[in-house]
Design goal:
The complex is a heterodimer of chains A (264) and B (207). Chain A is of the alpha+beta class and 264 residues long. Chain A is built from 1 helix and 15 strands; from the N terminus they run H-E-E-E-E-E-E-E-E-E-E-E-E-E-E-E. In chain A, the strands form 2 sheets. In chain A, strands 2, 7, 8, 9, 10, 12, 14 and 15 form an 8-stranded antiparallel beta sheet that branches. Chain A has a 7-stranded antiparallel beta sheet with strand order 6-5-4-3-11-1-13, with no helix packed on it. The termini of chain A are far apart. In chain B, strand 7 and strand 8 form a beta hairpin. Chain B is elongated. Chain B starts with a helix and ends with a helix. Classes of the chains: A alpha+beta (264), B alpha+beta (207). Chains A and B meet through strand 5, strand 6 and strand 11 of A and strand 1, strand 5, helix 3, strand 8 and strand 9 of B.
């Protein structure tokens, strides 16, 4: 009986302990959920932190192709995303005639999960066309090619008798693969550019490292130039990121932190 | 001995663990996709450039000239890369921007820049080269424009098939082809409504 009495008291203590542990677990879980909710709302509360554009081809607007090696990179966005959880990207860009017109192809770094915005990344390739301020974007999953640190060669070209532009990608020296269907624009030639962009947070701490190598643009006679020629800073809407070309003619371009580089 | 309740709980937990392990294993063995595959388009696209500035020179850095207060008699004596049509009902006299003849053929255009009491700011682009009819129709297809809150095909008063598009924070626009000229009626989304843009387009389409 004594032993039995002692055993009953031990069970009660165990039950009390379990209740205490359970209470702590509930409080911890509640705090965790509150924290995650805050992070999720922060992820959707950030504004675009801008983009950098540099043009090539000695100010030409007469290019009919643009090709670059882009290095896919995981960017830390301080918990801030944007619509669709987009963090950042690097692109091969063709700026079209007056009236807000362009076509581009490149990679994007997305937040993998709204509950884990800092640590997980989803990399996608994309094509984008803007005509008169209206945007159409197509996203492509390409995990064999698109991961942090890998180089993907991307290009935009148009056919001989059409103003429909086509994007291709080449993965680690492999063969070209077409990225989606053609992009019907309102121009036959354009200004070849490099572009780096990122989403949130604004106001410092947002340097974005981006490399563009083996820059090339296609001349009106349908042959490749072999370099980007003389490059110019076209616009820079990022306080903490600038562009830099090692040489003229430019074969590569990269972003650097101020005070290095050029801001325009 | 565990009670029936405990056994049920263990079975449920076991099933959940098995499901998770199964899914992870399947994903690990799926392997990389050899070719890019399309994923769902974003519901609403973001912008990596600032919104179009209707107060700036619409030609930007492209060489060209500005003709102020354009009327029909002035048009008759002004050399333009395309035959220019003016709307009758906008109720304002526009400034006109003309690309320089040295500019490449596919960038040759005229922009009529209106600040109208009826419609607010409206720019009319008349292009020597531009979208094809197929391209215009494509923009009107459901889901093609990922930034638009409206995108539709309309037949204008002059019989042309046009695309009417609107993107918050950006522009409202109508595209169509008229006598070989590709025309865009464009205004700020915040001030130019879909119906007003179509009204201007209808006016132009019968000129």
């Amino acid at each position: 009986m004594v032993g039995s009495h002692h055993a009953t008291g031990g069970s009660r203590r165990t039950i009390r302990k379990s209740r205490v542990v359970l209470a702590f677990a509930l409080v911890f879980a509640t705090l965790l959920l509150m924290g995650l909710s805050f992070r999720v709302s922060a992820a959707y509360g950030c504004a675009e932190n801008g983009a950098i554009f540099w043009s090539g081809g000695d100010y030409t607007t007469n290019a009919r192709g643009n090709q670059q090696d882009l290095v896919v990179r995981a960017h830390v966005s301080g918990g801030c995303g944007h619509f669709n959880d987009l963090r950042a990207g690097g692109t091969v860009h063709m700026s079209g005639p007056p009236g807000d017109n362009l076509v581009e192809t490149g990679w994007r770094d997305y937040i993998a999960s709204c509950c884990d915005p800092d640590n997980d990344h989803v990399f996608l390739l994309f094509n984008e066309i803007i005509v008169s301020g209206q945007v159409s974007v197509f996203l492509y999953d390409d995990p064999a090619c698109t991961f942090s640190g890998n180089t993907v060669t991307m290009r935009l070209i148009r056919g001989t008798t059409t103003n429909v532009w086509v994007a291709h990608r080449k993965c680690n020296g492999g063969s070209w693969a077409q990225l989606g269907t053609g992009l019907g624009t309102n121009f036959w030639s354009a200004s070849p550019r490099v572009e780096t962009f990122r989403a949130g947070p604004s106001g410092g701490g947002g340097f974005i490292l981006d490399f563009h190598r083996n820059l090339d643009w296609k001349k009106p006679d349908n042959t490749w130039k072999g370099s980007f020629g003389t490059m110019h800073c076209e616009s820079d809407w990022m306080d903490d990121t600038r562009g830099k070309k090692p040489s003229d003619p430019a074969y590569e371009w990269r972003t650097v932190e101020p005070p290095d580089g050029v801001e325009c | 001995m565990p009670s029936t309740k405990h056994l049920r709980m263990l079975i449920v937990i076991g099933a959940l663990v098995s499901a998770v392990v199964g899914l992870v294993t399947l994903r690990a063995h799926a392997g990389p996709s050899p070719e890019p595959s399309i994923v769902n388009n974003p519901a609403l696209e973001v912008f990596d450039i600032p919104a179009y500035d209707f107060d700036a020179n619409p030609l930007g850095d492209v060489p060209g000239a500005k003709v102020s207060s354009v009327t029909e008699p002035i048009l008759l004596t002004t050399e333009t890369p395309v035959p220019v049509v003016l709307p009758k009902t906008v109720g304002a006299i526009p400034d006109m921007y003309i690309t320089d003849p040295s500019v490449q053929a596919d960038w040759q255009l005229v922009v009529l820049n209106y600040k109208s009491s009826a419609y607010g700011q409206v720019q009319i682009f008349e292009r020597a080269e531009g979208l094809t009819q197929e391209g215009i129709d494509q923009w009107a297809e459901p889901g093609y424009c990922t930034s638009c809150t409206f995108a539709e095909s309309v037949v204008l008063a002059g019989g042309q098939r046009a695309a009417v598009l609107g993107t918050p924070g950006s522009t409202t626009v109508v595209h169509w082809i008229q006598k070989g000229v590709q025309i865009d009626v464009m205004g700020p989304f915040s001030t130019l409504s879909r119906d007003d843009a179509v009204a201007v387009a209808n006016d132009l389409s019968v000129q």
